[in-house]
Amino acid sequence: MTWFFARRIGEAAVLVLAVTLLTFTLMSMTSDTVARSIVGQTASAEVVAQKQAELGLDQPLIERFVQWLGGAVRGDFGSSWFTNESVGALLFAKVPVTLSLVLATVLVAAVVSVVFGVIAAIRRGGWIDRILQVVALAGFAFPSFVIALLLVLVFAVQLGWFPAIGFVPLTESPQLWLASITLPVAALAIQVVAATSQQIRGSMVDVLESDYIRTLRSRGVSPVGLYLKHALRSAAPPALTVLGLQSIALIGGTVIIEKVFGMLGLGTAIVGASSQGDLPIVMGVVSVMVLIIVAINLLLDLAYAWLNPKVRVA
Amino acid sequence: MQEGSAVRARARLSHTTRIVISAATLGALVATTAACAGGGSSSTQDSTLTMANAAGLGFDLADQQPGWFEQYLQPVYDSLFRISPDGDIGANIATEWEYDDALTALTIDLRTDVKFTDGESLDAEAVKANIEHTRTGASTTASQLQVVEDVEVVDSDTVVLHLIAPDPSLLPNLGMTAGMLASPAAIEAGGLKTTPVGSGPYTLDSSATTEGSQYTYVRNADYWNPDDYPYERVVVKVLTDNNAILNALRTGQVDAGPLGSAKDAKTAEGAGLHVLNYPNGDLEAVYFYDKNGTIAPALADVRVRQAINYALDRDAIVKAGYGDLATPTAQMFAITEDDGIFDPALNDVYPYDPEKARELLAEAGYPDGFDVVMPDWSGYAPEVNAAINQNLADIGIRITLDTLPVEQMYGNTLQGGYAMGWQPYEDNRPWDLIQFQIKPDAPWNPFHYEDPQVTALIGEIQAASGEEQTALFRELNEYLVEIAWAAPINATVFNYATSDDVEATPQAFAKRPPLYNFRPAD
Fold first, then answer.
1. Residues B311, B234: one domain?
2. Which of A190, A230, B80, B473 would be a feasible disulfide site paired with B179, CB 3.0-4.6 Å?
3. Contact status of B193 with chain A (Cβ, < 8 Å)
4. Which domain holds residue B458?
5. Does B270 reside within a domain?
6. For residue B388, what is the domain's CATH number?
7. In this complex, is the C-beta atom of B436 within 8 Å of any C-beta atom belonging to chain A?
8. What is the pLDDT of residues B52-78, one digit of tens each?
9. Is residue B68 part of a domain?
10. How many helices (H) and strands (E) does chain A have?
11. How far B213 CA lies from chain A's nearest CA (Å)?
């Protein structure tokens, strides 16, 4: 197990280095217009040149990357080229936003998907199953921002139950935190549920038709034990894969929801920064995102191992 | 067998029941939370003004760009001058001021009762330290101060700004970011990028501030002019999405904020919000960058440029893009109707007449039109661009659109990548427009086009003042229309909404209403 972790961390380091170098190179390819955007439309050519020198854009790429890397390993990600705010502080403020959204969405989606998926599989063709099919189709068909806008209009603007914008950190007030993420999580979870519950339903149906379930059933194993302990355990790995992929997609994919709800997380930060060419922010956010993705994959591996002893050999 | 299925049914039932119970519990929890959250909206009752704005540029005055982000700075910094809603220059830290006859020495008398919040005196030395610091930056604000050669401290409350050349925009600039004043000790210490120290009506409350998302300012109890700032607290929330701003306004989470489009303005009005509608100093036009004909020989012919002016159906374009929230114009200096420069008659020089346009093209030797590459701004103003491109196609101009991110289109334009193109341009005051796009070395004159008569008029304007200067601006405006310098379409109009409790007044040439123009509504 130690060897497994050591290898994983080694792989992660190589991945982080490769991704950051690639990002740095790509960002630098378009950086000739950055100085102009920073100083404004009306600044003179001399001012632009001065800014370029200030940002070190006149130095060779590899030198600048090594400089950035040197700072980053010491935890110093520099500061935004546009707003001057420290990238470390920015990450400190934005990581909780994204993690709250992603983790809460995954949790809600997992619970709801399992409940609906299992019930639909057991009562195949029943009304829950049919509703689930429709909801899943709708979840795929409606973009999450449309759902988000509807939720805001109904529950924030009309009914006033939830705030329309803003994020309250968990440490400030757990209750307001929950209120601030309820609508965005609901909007995000619908699509994840659509994908995952169908996966669970499908694999549950397969498992329930298999011989060993019939054997267990004939031996008088209680239905709850049969469905949850035996069948779901076999049906879970493919669903877990879907859920894992969905949660990775969510890390950057929350951007539209973040915008609609005025809660500025990693997604908004990286989209805004990369279209502006704000290299320090892009690099900081990309590094953190890669680390989160590596962590999620690690958790997935552990979950597979827990569900299926055969995997543990690795 | 029967017994077995009964057991199963019971187990299923209890399982389903459990799910129902869990769901109900979760629902109740969420409902409780929601009830608590409902009361948390901001209002003026607790004397807090909450504004939405795009992310600022930090607090170092050397890094600023005037127009967009003053709402972050106005709480903490005083400006030398105060600009009235009409754009007139008034006293603030400066009590009196006077130019010499050559217009190259500006003497300013200062208030003597102002201190920075760190206890330092706001005196002549502090003004000198600020101008010398701000001008070192690489920013539009810094470039506005390049004209200052030297700051002479006459006594503790008098400074003289010695200029390299007369600058008709210097006074208004000193009423915005270029004239803002930070504590010299804080400039020296170097922490201003994130921690402002000024003499303004408020101080930044770092405990209630999250960099990049919310800035909270609390009253400076020692401020010299508290009457202009009725609020105890000012909060600026960083919001970039138009929908988020609109929703925040509708739920009362912010009291004031910019609106994205004419459609949003209608929604806001429908929701009972006050909507301000004002020209922001930008001019939208089809610009002819290559009047030398370097990459598009056709544009060197004045008849071709005039033809394009005739080809544009300005009324229809503006209506498609902005409804009744913007006014078409055909002149370069198009901001205020009563500034003595704008001439309504100039808007009738090029009526919509595609027939005439085709004739002029034929006369110039382009009976079948010509090919041109233009930047694609359809992401920014889709209706406007679609209408313009159709108008140009109608007279035979074959456009290839170059689709790039906005920053790269700017970059390409500046490097002479396009012969012509539509663009919203930060126009500001007529003198600024001359600096930034008409002078041969202006950054937005990428092909360095020079017209002797234009250059002569610019020289005369710089050396003149008052009525005489206005008349010269008027003459230049007329000449630029005549030679079809560009094909202006409309002055950009901004929409800004406030709640029922807040009254705000826009300021000419400012993109956002300044903090000192916000009041609780009666």
1. no
2. B80
3. yes
4. 279-494
5. no
6. 3.10.105.10
7. yes
8. 998 888 999 999 988 889 999 999 999
9. yes
10. 14, 0
11. 7
**Structurally, how many domains does chain B consist of?**
2
**Domain assignment present for B515:** yes
One domain, residues B503 and B490: no
Question: Is the pLDDT confidence value at B239 over 60?
Answer: yes
Lowest mean pLDDT among B23-37, B41-55, B106-120, B257-271: B23-37
CA angle (B280, B283, B284) in 5-degree steps: 125
Chain A contacts of B32, Cβ < 8 Å? 175
Interface mutation target, options A147, A149, A264, A276, chain B, most CBs of B under 10 Å: A264
pTM of the model: 0.79
Interface test with A, best of B36, B167, B211, B431 (most A CBs within 10 A): B211
- Residue-wise pLDDT tens digits, B209-220: 988 889 999 999
What SS3 class is residue A154?
A: helix
Nearest to A114 by CA among A214, A222, A203: A203
Report how far residue A140's alpha carbon sits from residue B325's, in angstroms, rounded to the nearest whole number: 38
CATH, residue B36? 3.40.190.10
More confident position, A259 or B109: B109
Which member of B4, B57, B425 has the closest CB to residue A83? B57
A99 or A312, higher pLDDT: A99
Residue among A44, A224, A268 whose CB faces B15 most closely: A224
Q: What percent of chain A has pLDDT over 90?
A: 7
Summarize the confidence of residues A130-159 as an average pLDDT. Answer: 85
Instruction: Give the helix/strand (H/E) hosting A156.
Output: none
The pLDDT of residue B17: 45
CB contact under 8 A, A47 and B194: no
Assess whether B441 and B320 both reside in one domain. yes
**Which amino acid is present at A240?**
L
Identify whether the C-beta of residue B481 lies closer than 8 Å to the C-beta of residue B115: no
* Closest chain A C-alpha to B428 CA, distance in angstroms: 10
Residues B75 and B113 in one domain: yes
| Pairing assessment for the beta strands B398-402 and B371-375 based on DSSP bridges | parallel
Alpha carbon dihedral A39, B146, B199, B253, in 10-degree steps, equals -20
B1 reaches A (C-beta below 8 A): no
Question: Of residues B307 and A259, which shows the higher confidence score?
Answer: B307
B123 falls within a domain: yes
pLDDT of residue A311: 63
Q: Which chain A residue shows the shortest CA-CA distance from B66?
A: A40
Q: Could you tell me which chain B residue has the CA closest to the CA of A159? A: B38
Q: What does the pLDDT look like over B297-336, one tens digit per residue?
A: 999 999 999 999 999 999 999 998 888 778 899 999 866 6
**Are B232 and B322 within one domain?**
no
> B210 — contact with chain A (CB < 8 Å)?
yes
Task: Considering only residues A251 and A152, tell me which one the structure prediction assigns the higher pLDDT.
Answer: A152
Considering the domain architecture, whether residues B504 and B483 belong to the same structural domain is answered as no
Of B41, B57, B139, the CB nearest to A43: B139
Structure-model confidence comparison of residues B10 and B372, the more confident one: B372
Residue B65 contacts A, CB cutoff 8 Å? yes
More confident residue, A204 or B185: B185
Return the pLDDT at A260: 86
Contacts of B494 (CB under 8 A, 6+ apart): B258, B259, B276, B277, B278, B279, B280, B506, B511
**What is the distance of C-alpha B63 from the center of its chain?**
16
Amino acid at B401: L
The minimal CB distance from B65 to the residues A40, A167, A261 is found for A40
Residues B514 and B426 reside in one and the same domain: no
B153, B236: one domain = yes
